[in-house]
UniProtKB/TrEMBL annotation:
Residues annotated as transmembrane: 35-55, 67-87, 93-116, 128-150, 156-179
Domain EAL residues, every copy: 507-761
Occurrences of domain PAS (ranges): 205-241
UniProt cross-references to NCBIfam families, sorted A to Z: GGDEF (TIGR00254), sensory_box (TIGR00229)
InterPro entries linked: Biofilm_reg_signaling, EAL_dom, EAL_sf, GGDEF_dom, Nucleotide_cyclase, PAC, PAS, PAS-assoc_C
Membrane topology: Multi-pass membrane protein
Domain PAC: 263-315
Record protein name field: EAL domain-containing protein
Keywords: Cell membrane, Membrane, Transmembrane, Transmembrane helix
């Protein structure tokens, strides 16, 4: 009987090898694999019952207990239940006296297997050979005890049970080991597949032996290096060396691998084509059980594109895109380095701050493409005059800076060399520029600043007490000198003087004070009368005065130029315009003043504001002033910034009755053709012509021509700056019929003007 059980068990073990095929076929679908496993185990049990040891009274003994218990332990409840259902169904079909006992064997085996699985998952038992043998022995001892309790078993149970105890525990060990081995092999195969898949990634993968001979590479390796696998296998990894790293670099790499088992960093390698490229390399050392290095596994990524992008970003951050010159940021760094250098060598260095004269006109007349070509040519010309250690940078649209070092240890020679350098630059930039068919002319205004350490002091030299002094401050000083040069006329050179900085500081303080004064409504209107040829007052010009809280009354000479530079002049003009409208509305209520007109000067920026017309309409609506009594004075040159816009806005206001006068007429050196297009009412002769009227024949001729021109265009003419009776009489003889000046009255506050007005002949329109 023992032999029969052994043969029977061997057959069932062979059938269980079908599990290998099932696992391979359905490895991606775990549920299907479990169902099929359950069916295989169940059919195995059925086949086992077909060839079982059978007794005459209907008892059947086979290895189904082994199959079902191990199935439950290894594969879980689903597989065990399916196998149990199939086995139980077949046992019911067989029938016989042992049917009930057979069903108990089926159920008990499954329960024992699931219990053992639970204990194993909670680390209470193991799955080694001894553990499996004990498990099989326990299962079959329990089944034998069950048989002995059955009244019908008797001697048969004892006879078969002894054989089972000798064979089945060993069979349990064999089946359990076999199924675990199948699972382990399958797991290893999956791991190998995963490793192979991971090996074929977008990174270069290289496996080398302990002597750095290449054993294996992936497909990405060929893409990146250009080498086929068969070209490098068996060769040393040194074939990739670029020559950019010395022996010490590779020695340090080997030392780190030996100590830490890993090295990573940037490295330059060589492709098959000979091209050198940057890569990020990660190397790991593989050791055997004795701790000796047996292999090296390397992953490498070509970072050429990343390095190129980083270089591009650095270039954009440090260099001007149009000219390729260093930009403001890089210039600051180099100036700071030069400051540190002057601390050590005690020699002067200098900055030349270069601003092109008239560049805006080139852009406006010929377009920005032409302007860019001029800037490129400027950069090329300046590059030709540089010394080897000079720095040339572009700061803005038409602003360039040259920094030169090692001028001299003495102030005078250093200043002379800096000025000569600036003159050479100026001469070079004043030569004509040929762009396409256009020959363009420009020049440059240059500000010069010398700088040195703090060991000696000289006028016009910026001294630095320590290396932390601001390069930004130094460039500001050069820019201040440039503005001084530009203010003195085109193609000028000015050296920075500390007094310039004091002037700038004073201007900045005045700007803040003007802003405060505007908020406090400290700017008030003064009125200078305007009269006709009969001596009748026709109106007045509104002139701004600053009633300063601390300094008293301030004239425009004190604040106008600063307000214009700070772009605050339009706010002053708006305050004067609003107060003029309020005053006109008050005068309209009295018959003696209702015909008076008020003239208000406008800045160029105010005229070209998009809300200019709306603001005037708002002032008129709020005050209730008659627009026909308002006159706006515009300077001649401001109209040419945008003639079309100026005409459109003037015509819109002219429809309301607002009058327009051209201030300082004759000083703009512009074409007179615009007089036919503009909706003007009056020309105002500049006081410079009036002042020279009795001295220079040319002034008389100009005034006479202006009066004749105005008469032909049906325009009024008013002369400003009339201070003497002789000037007045001469102007009358030249057919000038309207006047303004100290001869008739100085600018006065409102109360004084109204008092003066009451003593004059009746006003006239």
């Amino acid at each position: 009987m023992i032999i029969q059980f052994v043969e029977h068990s061997a057959l069932l073990l062979a059938l269980c090898w079908l599990m290998t095929l099932n696992i391979r076929r359905w490895e991606r679908n775990n549920s299907v694999a479990k169902v099929i496993s359950g069916v295989i185990f169940g059919l195995t049990c059925a086949i086992g019952m077909m060839i079982a040891v059978t007794f005459d009274n209907g008892w059947v003994f086979d290895a189904r207990s082994v199959v079902l218990s191990i199935a439950a332990f290894v594969s879980g409840p689903l597989v065990a239940v399916i196998a149990g259902i199939i086995a139980a169904s077949y046992r019911l079909w067989l029938g016989g006296a042992g049917m009930t006992g057979g069903l108990v064997v089926i159920g008990g085996s499954i329960l024992f297997g699931l219990l053992y699985r639970h204990l194993y998952q909670h680390n209470k038992v193991g799955n080694g050979l001894i553990s499996l043998f004990c498990f099989g022995l326990l299962v079959h001892l329990s089944l034998l005890g069950h048989f002995l309790l059955l009244p019908a078993a008797g001697e048969i149970a004892v006879q078969a049970g002894i054989a089972m105890l000798l064979v089945m525990p060993l069979t349990t060990v064999c089946l359990g080991w076999m199924l675990e081995d199948i699972k382990r092999r399958h797991h290893n195969e999956r791991e190998l597949q995963i490793s192979a898949t991971a090996f074929e990634v977008r990174q270069v993968m290289i496996v080398a032996d302990k002597d750095r001979r290449i054993l294996r590479v992936n497909r990405t390796f060929t893409t990146v290096t250009g080498y086929e696998a068969e070209e490098v296998v068996g060769k040393s990894t040194s074939i990739f060396h670029s020559g950019r790293h010395d022996a010490a670099f590779y020695e340090q790499m080997q030392q780190q691998l030996a100590a830490a088992g890993r090295w990573q960093g940037e490295i330059w390698n060589r492709r098959k084509s000979g091209d050198v490229y940057p890569a990020w390399l990660s190397m790991s050392a593989v050791r055997n059980a004795q701790g000796k290095i047996t292999h090296y596994v390397s992953s490498m990524e070509d970072i050429s594109e990343r390095k190129a992008a980083e270089a591009r970003i650095h270039h954009l951050a440090s260099f001007d895109e149009l000219t390729g010159l260093p930009n403001r940021s890089l210039l600051f760094d180099r100036v700071q380095q030069a400051i540190n250098f002057t601390e050590n060598n005690k020699r002067y260095a200098c900055l030349l701050f270069i601003d092109l004269d008239g560049f805006k006109s080139i852009n406006d007349l010929y377009g920005h493409e032409t302007g860019d070509q001029v800037l490129l040519e400027v950069a090329r010309r300046l590059s030709r005059v540089l010394y080897s250690n000079d720095t040339l940078a572009r700061l803005g649209a038409d602003e360039f800076v040259i920094m030169t070092e090692n001028l001299s240890v003495s102030h005078e020679p250093a200043l002379m060399r800096a000025e000569q350098y600036a003159m050479r630059v100026n001469q070079l930039l004043s030569q004509p520029y040929q762009v396409a068919d256009n020959k363009l002319y420009s020049s440059a205004s240059i500000g010069v600043v010398l700088f040195k350490d703090a060991s000696s002091a000289s006028i016009g030299v910026v001294l630095f007490k320590d290396a932390s002094s601001s390069s930004n401050e130094l460039i500001q000083h050069a820019e201040i000198a440039m503005h001084q040069a530009k203010a003195s006329g085109k193609q000028s050179i000015r050296c920075f003087d500390p007094a310039m900085q004091e002037e700038v500081n004073a201007r900045l303080l005045l700007e803040d004070d003007i802003r405060r004064g505007l908020q406090a409504q400290e700017f008030i209107p003064y009125f200078q009368p305007q009269l006709n040829e009969l001596g009748q007052v026709t109106g007045a010009e509104v002139l701004a005065r600053w009633q300063h809280a601390e300094r008293g009354l301030l004239t425009p000479n004190y604040f106008i130029s600063v307000a214009e530079q700070a772009e605050l002049i339009e706010q002053i003009d708006l305050q004067m315009l609003r107060q003029a409208c309020l005053q006109l509305a008050l005068w309209q209520q009295t018959s003696t003043t209702s015909s008076l007109r008020l003239a208000v000067n406008l800045s160029a920026r105010l005229l070209y504001r998009t809300d200019f017309v709306e603001m005037i309409l708002q002032f008129l609506a709020e005050s209730g002033a008659d627009p026909r009594q308002l006159k706006l004075e515009l300077t001649e040159t401001m109209l040419f910034d945008d003639m079309t816009t100026a005409i459109a806005r003037m015509q819109e206001l002219k429809k309301l009755g607002i009058r327009f006068s051209i201030d300082d007429f004759g000083t703009g050196y512009s074409s007179l053709a615009y007089l036919q297009k503009l909706p003007l009412n009056q020309l105002k002769i500049d006081q410079s012509f009036v002042r020279a009227l009795l001295i220079e024949d040319s002034s008389e001729a100009i005034i006479k021509a202006i009066c004749a021109l105005a008469d032909s265009l049906d325009l009024e003419v008013i002369a400003e700056g009339v201070e003497t009776q002789a000037q007045y009489q001469k102007l009358l003889s030249l057919d000038c019929l309207h006047f303004q000046g100290y001869l008739f009255g100085r600018p006065m506050p409102l109360a004084e003007f109204e008092s003066w007005l009451s003593q004059q002949p009746s006003s006239s329109s």
